[in-house]
Amino acid sequence: MEGKAREPEYSPRMTALVACTDAHFAWMLGGESPSPDLHLPPGGIEAAPVMEMLRALMADIRSTHPVCAWLMTEGEEIVGLCSFTRAADGEGIPYIGYGVAESRRRRGHATRAIRLMAIEVLRDPNVRGIGAETSVANIPSQRVLEENGFAKIGARVDDEDGEVFVWRYAFTNGTSAAIET
Q: Would 163 be classed as within a structural domain?
């Protein structure tokens, strides 16, 4: 058969989460691997200054949420990271963020990872929902949230990111039709 070689097909069902520790952050910043079976994609996950900022943020959030960051994996490769960006507030709403390595985008990893992350986060009896913010220009990230049952509840101007949409995923009585196991 002649023609162009086909790209391998990727299924979001192959995405899994691994709890991310400080040792993982140290490794992603050039240290020794705490998980020899895992490897990074070409180019890594994100630039070192962003990883350093996330590492410091997770150190603060771990005091109230011991597991607050997860590695997105496909097989033995780390393809992205998802985490809390803010601990749960007085209403029980933590905020989340996520990113996929540039070389691994558009394969459904973020959509599947946020679904899995939400299941984990909502196991905490003190959490009443999940918040997120996306740049108004980041359509793919908005789709990830929409596909996981988040609703756009407003907009605001962030000092660093400019105009952002504010999203909320809420549930009542500990159940949700939008995110199922």
A: yes
Per-residue pLDDT tens over the stretch 94-138: 999 999 888 888 888 899 999 999 998 988 888 999 999 999 999
**Other beta carbons less than 10 A from residue 33's beta carbon:** 14
Residue 37's alpha-carbon distances to 24, 31, 57, 73, 167, in angstroms, are: 12, 15, 26, 11, 35
- Give per-residue burial for 2-14: e unless 16+ CB within 10 Å, then b: eeeeeeeeeeeee
Say which CATH number the domain at 40 has.
3.40.630.30
Indicate the number of domains in the chain: 1
- Tell me whether residue 4 is in a domain: no
pTM: predicted TM-score of the whole model, two decimal places: 0.83
* Residue 61, domain extent: 12-170
Which string of DSSP letters, residue by residue, matches 17-37?
Answer: EEEPPHHHHHHHTTS--S-TT
